[in-house]
UniProtKB/TrEMBL annotation, chain B:
It comes from Falsiroseomonas selenitidurans. Its main location: membrane. The chain crosses the membrane at residues 12-35, 42-59, 65-84, 96-116, 128-159, 191-211, 231-254, 291-316, 328-345, 351-368, 403-424, 431-450, 479-497, 518-542, 562-589. This is ABC transporter permease. It is a multi-pass membrane protein. Keywords: Cell membrane, Membrane, Transmembrane, Transmembrane helix. The keyword Cell membrane applies. It is found in: Cell membrane. The keyword Cell membrane applies.
Length: 284, 623
């Protein structure tokens, strides 16, 4: 079986800095992979590379059997890759509901793939003029699809309990920090992705909120066994709780690739995080 | 043959050194304040006029020049105080449009003080001539080149060796880190504006000597060419600005030598658009343009270009009360307005019809700049395109209105989609620059494509024809047609904005990278909004041509584009009801100020400046 995501020799330099250096790994479908590492290890660059925001200087990235190395971000997204950003990007002037609905636009116009969860064959696409005409003349087919996607967005918001749903008509910028992160994840989920990339989803959350979000991700992972999740996470507690596999990065390279327990106990990992002196001290 | 080449090359080097000076002013300000300073051209013009006045008072040219440079540096600092400092936490477009407003005020003010006519500027070294091969150089050429080179060298030394210069560069690289190192970042911004003023003044004096004249409109073309040079080299790059200046000067002179003098500006602006499309980061630049988020963009908690989010946190919801009447209410007001001919004189009906045209234009621009966030300073070109389509088809080909309306609407829509392409890969301030260039290209085509447009003479005697068997000759019927078109356009805009299409436009405005990441085909929606905006502008243009029965390039100047921007800001960005209201109000303004016509642009400039400072959400609220 082909892996859901495969990176081969992916290298990206920014000026003299090698952000990712010959990174290769594959992620089987349904895995929950955590990428950890100290600041500047190249973790976020990896997400930028996979989602097409940054192009690699060398190497290949495959999604299933499909090469996506040089595709534009929206093309990669349309193939079933959804992401969150390190700094929550939630369309601040839109309402919470609208912000989630942006994630359904590609499905509304029938671009991209038809997610299995949507059921049935892929509906015909609306071209740009067809969509404008559908709006202006109230075409029933477009309106029905719009209603169905609005219901899907509502269901997605309700996944987060009463955190987002009661606030659906408020502007997104008025949300708290933690709720912005939730909103971004909701927007990613509403597209029913095959691959979900989360860039520090619990950053800035207190322990209760972190626990709640970890629980949500665990539920997602259980409820959608086909969904591959790659998350960058600093909180090792969350990594231990969720991940089935951990990749530790340092200076742009893969340092360790193992199970959470083995990876986090690896002396090289401790050195990467704390430096050599601390390690020798820790070893007595 | 080689003589022509050599002579154009030398001319190019000379004028290119002036462009390099202007470009350096842009680059300094852009580097330190992350702002494209649209007042740079105005500073150049003011510098030339200050020197002109001092020379008239009997001062020697060198003393007058130095005093003028000092005075213009002070004006540059004033620009920082008025356009940048009070707006640091304002939406990213506020400082940009404020510099535009200041430029408008300066240009109109100069016309008041020094008259709009071109005046002779003394050029003592003009008679001194040196032959180089088959080409010749005047003393002014040599002096210009040497002075510009010396100033560039001095500036490089200043930036690399002096404490202040290093502090400026540090501020440009990372203002927060610079502030933590004890650098007064606010002062550095002011220094950058002061230097930009001094460079602008020097360039202005050199230009005045080169062309031996000064006139208030000189700021705009040299301003744009300075941008073009800065952009060609890479906006935040100082060596890039110098390289860009020389390249632009040489290229433009070779083009005017081989293609014809009339094409000089057209070719310079086209080059600017080409650079924006192909290599927006310039020859020596970095990818920084893509990261443009305005003055507050870099440090904000939410990376966005959202005007709503930057209105001020939780208070924004209460401050931004949005005027959004039901469509039937707007239609009812338009229906009431249809009664004007029953009570008003022909003059009143003519004014009211003009208001309807400007309401359509404001509506058209608020879709593009307000809803989708593509700030356009060239909208007058689309308006003009529609007007010329109508004028040419009606007068030369005898087309009836029923055929002209769709031709103008869809023709302008296609044109708008095409003209927006250079801007589509850009964000923030660079878009404004690209659309400014598009607008000027449009104006120059109206002016210079004489076989088609009759050039500056314009096209007169445009027949109004008849529609559905009714003669459209009476003014009242033209007015009703204008109202009908306005109502139709309003309904179309309302319908689109309330649909997923409008939501997607606003999402792209709020955060374009996030829209890409969410799978939105951004290009498709930007082309659609440009086409819709163009469609409405084209109808407004056709209606305008019938109303005036005359079109000429003068109606589609940069001034018109700026008035439209003021309407959009006054109405509340993206608010169509607000735009219609503001279009009517600002179209009435010149009628109210009829006795003070020369003050008109100053009033528009002040309105825009005050709005951006005190009420960026406009009358109707941002939507």
């Amino acid at each position: 079986m082909t892996a859901a995501l495969a990176l081969k020799g992916v290298t990206r330099r920014f000026g003299g800095l090698v952000a990712t250096d010959d990174v290769s790994f594959t992620v089987p479908g349904g895995q929950l992979l955590a990428i950890v590492g100290p600041n500047g290890a190249g973790k976020s660059t990896l997400v930028q590379l996979i989602t097409g925001f940054v192009r690699p200087d060398a190497g290949h990235i495959r999604l299933g059997a499909r090469e996506i190395t040089r595709l534009a971000p929206e093309a990669i997204s349309a193939l079933g890759v959804a992401r969150s950003f390190q700094t929550s990007r939630i369309f601040p002037g839109l309402t919470v509901m609208e912000s989630v609905l942006v994630g359904t636009q590609v499905a509304l116009i029938g671009g991209g793939r038809q997610p299995p969860a949507f059921g049935g064959p892929k509906p015909p696409a609306f071209g740009v003029l067809a969509e404008a005409a559908a709006v202006l003349f109230g075409l029933p087919r477009y309106a029905a699809r719009r209603r169905a996607l609005e219901a899907r967005a509502a269901a997605t918001l309700q996944l987060f309990g009463d955190r987002l749903w009661p606030r659906r008509d408020q502007p997104a910028f008025s949300l708290s920090y933690a709720n912005r992160r939730r909103l971004e994840i909701a927007r990613a989920l509403v597209a029913e992705p095959d691959l979900l990339l989360l860039d520090e989803p619990t950053a800035g959350m207190n322990p209760t909120e972190t626990g709640e979000l970890a629980e949500l991700i665990a539920q997602l992972h259980a409820a959608r066994p086909a969904l591959t999740i790659v998350m960058i996470e600093h909180k090792l507690q969350v990594v231990r709780q969720l991940a089935t596999r951990v990749i530790v990065m340092n200076h742009g390279s893969v340092l360790v690739d193992a199970t959470p327990a083995a990876a986090l106990a690896d002396p090289r990992v401790v050195t990467a995080y704390l430096g050599r002196a601390a390690t020798s001290h820790a070893h007595g | 043959m080689i003589e022509l080449f050599l002579s154009q090359l030398l001319n190019g080097l000379v004028i290119g050194s002036v462009y390099a000076l202007i470009a350096l002013g842009f680059s300094l300000v852009f580097g330190v304040a992350n702002l494209i300073n649209f007042a740079q051209g105005a500073l150049l013009m003011l510098g030339a006029f200050f020197a002109f006045t001092l020379i008239q008072w009997g001062l020697p040219i060198v003393v007058a020049g130095l005093l003028s440079i000092a005075a213009t540096a002070a004006v540059g600092m004033l620009v920082e105080r008025l356009a940048l400092r009070p707006l640091r936490n304002a939406p990213a477009i506020a400082p940009l449009l404020s510099t535009l407003a200041l430029a408008v005020i300066a240009d109109a003010g100069a016309e008041l003080i020094w008259s709009a006519e071109s005046q002779p500027f003394p050029s003592p070294l003009q008679s001194f001539v040196v032959f180089v091969g088959g080409a010749f150089l005047t003393g002014v050429d040599i002096a210009t080149f040497l002075v510009a080179l010396a100033v560039m060298g001095g500036l490089m030394l200043f930036l690399s060796r002096s404490w202040t210069g290093r502090a400026l560069r540090a501020t440009a690289q990372d203002p927060e880190a610079a502030a933590q190192m004890g650098i007064d970042v606010a002062l550095m911004r002011q220094v950058a504006f002061g230097l930009a003023g001094a460079l602008g003044a020097l360039a202005g004096i050199l230009v005045a000597m080169y062309y031996q004249s000064v006139f208030p409109q000189m700021g705009v073309p040299f301003g744009i060419k300075g941008f073009a040079a800065a952009l060609l080299g890479g906006l935040a790059s100082i060596p890039g600005a110098v390289l860009g200046g020389f390249l632009l000067g040489i290229f433009e002179n070779l083009a005017s030598g081989y293609v014809g003098e009339g094409s000089r500006d057209l070719i310079a602006y086209s080059l600017l658009l080409l650079v924006l499309m192909v290599r927006p980061q310039g020859l020596l630049g970095t990818g920084r343009l893509e990261a443009l988020g305005g003055v507050a963009g870099a440090s904000g908690a939410i990376p966005t270009t959202s005007i709503i989010a930057s209105l001020g946190g939780a208070t924004a919801r209460t401050r931004n009360r949005v005027l959004q009447p039901k469509p039937w209410m707007v239609l009812a007001v338009i229906a009431l307005a249809a009664l004007v001919p029953a009570i008003g004189s022909a003059y009143v009906v003519q004014v009211a019809a003009g208001c309807a045209v400007f309401a359509m234009l404001a509506l058209s621009l608020t879709l593009l700049s307000g809803s989708a966030g593509v700030i356009s300073i060239g909208h007058a070109a689309l308006f003009g395109f529609g007007a010329y389509v109508c004028a040419i088809l009606a007068r030369n080909h005898g087309w009836p209105p029923a055929a002209i309306l769709p031709a103008a609407a869809f023709g302008t829509a296609a044109m708008a989609a095409l003209a927006t392409l250079p801007a589509i890969r850009l964000t923030g301030h660079a878009v404004a620059l690209a659309t400014l260039a598009v607008g000027q290209v449009g104006y120059l085509l109206f002016l210079n494509w004489i076989e088609l447009t009759r050039g500056p003479m314009g096209i007169a005697g445009i027949p109004r024809g008849s529609l559905f068997g009714l003669s459209m000759q009476p003014l009242d019927r033209q007015y009703w047609l204008a109202l009908g078109l306005l109502a139709l356009c309003y309904l179309v805009a309302h319908r689109l904005l309330e649909s997923p299409i409008g939501r997607t436009w606003r999402a792209i405005r709020e955060d374009r990278p996030a829209a890409h990441a969410a799978g939105v085909p951004v290009l498709r929606y930007l082309v659609l909004v440009a086409a819709t905006s163009g469609l409405i502008a084209g109808l407004a243009g056709a209606q305008f041509a019938w109303l005036q029965a005359f079109v000429s390039p003068d109606s589609f100047l940069l001034e018109t584009s700026i008035v439209l921007i003021a309407m959009v800001v006054l109405g509340g960005m993206g608010n169509i009801a607000g735009a219609v209201l503001a279009g009517v109000l600002l179209a009435l303004l010149p009628e109210a100020l009829r006795a003070f016509d020369e003050w008109r642009m100053i009033v528009y400039g002040l309105v825009l400046l005050a709005l951006l400072r005190f009420r960026p959400q406009g009358l109707g609220g941002v939507k």
